Amino acid sequence: MEPEEQPEAGSVRLNDDNEVERYDGARWQPYRQLPDDGSDNLLRGEDPDTEREAT
């Protein structure tokens, strides 16, 4: 088995319990808050200027 590659600070992963963890540069820590992109969109990548048609 190959050794695990050293993660970069700020890397995220799912642990064995399917909980999000963030690498702080020294160890993996529970990550309970998603970063805020400053918009009111719940879905990232969605263009607020694009109107969606009802299906």
Task: Describe what you observe in this structure.
It is a single chain. With 55 residues, the protein is mostly beta strands. The protein has a domain at 1-32. The chain is 0% helix and 18% strand. It contains no helices and three strands. The chain has strands at residues 12-14, 20-23, 28-30. It has a three-stranded antiparallel beta sheet with strand order 1-2-3, with no helix packed on it. β2 (20-23) and β3 (28-30) form a beta hairpin. The radius of gyration is 17 Å and the shape is elongated. The N and C termini lie far apart (50 Å). The model has no long low-confidence stretch (mean pLDDT 77).
| Uncertain residue segments | none
Shape: elongated
Radius of gyration, in angstroms, nearest whole number: 17 Å
Number of extended strands: 3
What is the H-and-E element order? EEE
Bin the strand percentage: 15-25%
Distance between the termini: 50 Å
Structural key phrases:
single chain; about 55 residues; mainly beta; 3-stranded antiparallel sheet
Give a short overview:
By secondary structure, the protein is mainly β.
Task: Please outline the helices and strands.
Layout: E1 12-14, E2 20-23, E3 28-30
Antiparallel strand pairs: 1-2, 2-3
